[in-house]
Amino acid sequence: MVHGFVKVCACTPEIRVADCAFNAGAVVRLAQAAAEKGAKLCVFPELCVTGYTCQDLFFQKTLTDAAESAVETIAAQTADMDLLLCVGVPVRVGGKLYNCAAVLHGGKILGLVPKTALPNYQEFYEARHFSPAPAENFAIRFAGQDCAFGGRLLFSCAGMPEFLLGVEICEDLWVPEPVSTRHALAGATVIVNLSASDEVIGKDTYRRQLVENQSGRLICGYLYCNAGEGESTQDMVFSGHSLIAENGAVLNERAPFSQKESLLISELDVQKLANERLKMTTYPAPDNCGYTVVSFDWTQKETELTRFVPKTPFIPGNFAERNERCERILQMQSHGLCKRWKHTNAKTLVLGISGGLDSCLALLVCVKAADLFQRPRTDVLAVTMPCFGTTTRTRTNAEVLCEKLGVRFMEVDITKSVLAHFEDIGQSAEDFSVVYENGQARERTQVLMDLANQKNGLVIGTGDLSELALGWATYNGDHMSMYGVNGSVPKTLVRHIVKFYADTCGNAELRTVLEDILDTPVSPELLPTNQEKSDITQKTEDIVGPYELHDFFLYYGIRWAFPPDKVYRLAKYAFAGEYAEEVILKWLRVFYRRFFAQQFKRSCLPDGAKIGSVTLSPRGDWRMPSDASAAAWLDIIDKL
Fold it and tell me: Does 581 participate in catalysis according to the annotation?
């Protein structure tokens, strides 16, 4: 429950058609198993107390009385489990029969939610037996208790205000205006669907798409629990295909026909959902007109996580999807640059090439833009500017890369210029302070800007999103350009894009140099190297920390606005066995300290197209005062 996590479970029991006592026992047994695994919300299939396939037996009072008695049994036997249960049951009310979800907690029936959309086509004929949900809610007595009844019920956890549950039943999702949409607009952050969706070829794919899309459109958690073993196979077959989704992503899935009985478990992050709704100005404020909110409470405790938390959230885990994303990013970068090239009527693209990852990616983008613009690749001028820390390896890689890509290559050794500048300002060349480093970076930018003026060119920036987040750039040095192509690409993703290009370029020599660049430690190469210029003495990740950690902090701390203690918890979980807790905490403190202190650099960034869901452009997604205090964030970290 801490940090907004709620462990949820979709339970598919093995049932017997029309045997309510047996089915109640199956429900209680699975509920107990779910509770032992820490679940707080358990959802069962549509009409699971009787079986969905009872047909005209639904008209038998014997069956509906047995179902009511079964719900009474389930409520009594789960009273001490601290579970919110949603169980499918037929209910007689006012001379009509309704296909309902009974919502139970602590032995109490909180409410009965009837199905709204009754399919009466093809293999379905629910309108023969059931009536749709009435327009308004009212109170009834059922299973020995007074409870709310109606299609406009929401269930709220008193100790967790972000959790508000809405219930829909099977077809309610498949119609043009799903009932869950109405629930979400009334404030529901979690939707459960009690379903008895039979299996036909291709239906599982469509079902998954429905759940993914609805959870994304509504920015909600979505539990879809489907009927399985035990339903009649007279005319249909049921597979138990169930899903747990959150904001457009499937967290867990029970494949069709995978098990007779199963618990499908994951954790929903309702705090994350609430934060996302808060940011989206097009998501309306809750309008619960006509709704009844029924309150309950859970015992508050920390939820053990089982859901997958990727260490590299910017990079798809699937290899094919990763390649597709890398290709698309290169397309976006090159099309953005091509438009700017056309608009400025520049003759040349000018960029600094260091033999490192970022300038390598920027050069690949320039080459693709030239091809797209149908300009010769020689209209791209790559300039290497060796100085005190440049190694033979990076210098050689820069030249070979340019040769294999067919761009113009130029070397401007800036050593004399930097030394002359040091003499002008009284800076000792033996003082390896920030002046020593930044003097080189600013000299390189001056060279690029002047060459651009000389050749009617456009200076292309190479800095990436991770460096912008940490402020790891020299103000008015590599911080500045005329167009930045990597500005919303995080460092962890830069590596994969370059690797993708190496794997698909079709040139063995080009692939070899790209792979060596990938193997080169990330470094600004601003401090002196050894006499042979063979060893990189200044490694970025030794100074500011591992980029995979910082990209993780960036994604969860900035993109999702999680507080530092939650980011820390997720990082410990994702990187368990790779980084000690004190190491994660150390770099988390560095991240927040630098992120706040270095905002002034982001406030005057050059233009550059947005690529992913995270960007720090002051004209786009991220607007922050340069003098904001990090005290509240650092205070949380200091208490961890």
Answer: no
Tokens of 69: 């008695």
Per residue in 202-254, pLDDT (tens digit) is 999 999 999 999 999 999 999 999 999 899 998 899 999 999 999 999 999 99
Q: Are residues 432 and 540 in the same domain?
A: yes
Of 54, 86, 100, 170, which is the active-site residue?
170
User: How many domains does the structure of the chain reveal?
Assistant: 2
Q: Which of 9, 40, 46, 491 is an active site residue?
A: 46
Which entry of 7, 40, 115, 491 is annotated as an active-site residue? 115
Tokens matching residue 315: 């990079």
Give me the half-sphere count of Cα atoms (radius 13 Å) on the Cβ side of residue 458: 27
Q: Pick from 121, 101, 117: which is nearest to 179 by CA?
A: 117
Q: 274-327: per-residue pLDDT in tens?
A: 999 999 999 999 988 899 999 999 998 899 999 999 999 999 999 999 999 999
Rg (CA), the chain: 30
Q: Which domain holds residue 380?
A: 319-638
The structure tokens listed for 152 are 């406009």
Cβ(365)–Cβ(334) below 8 Å: yes
**Annotated catalytic residue 46:** yes
**Does residue 304 form part of some domain?**
no
DSSP structural state of residue 20 = H
Question: Is 78:85 a contact under the CB 8 Å cutoff?
Answer: yes
Whether 302 maps to a domain, the answer reads no
Residues in the chain: 640
If one counts every other C-beta atom within 10 angstroms of the C-beta of residue 417, the result is 18
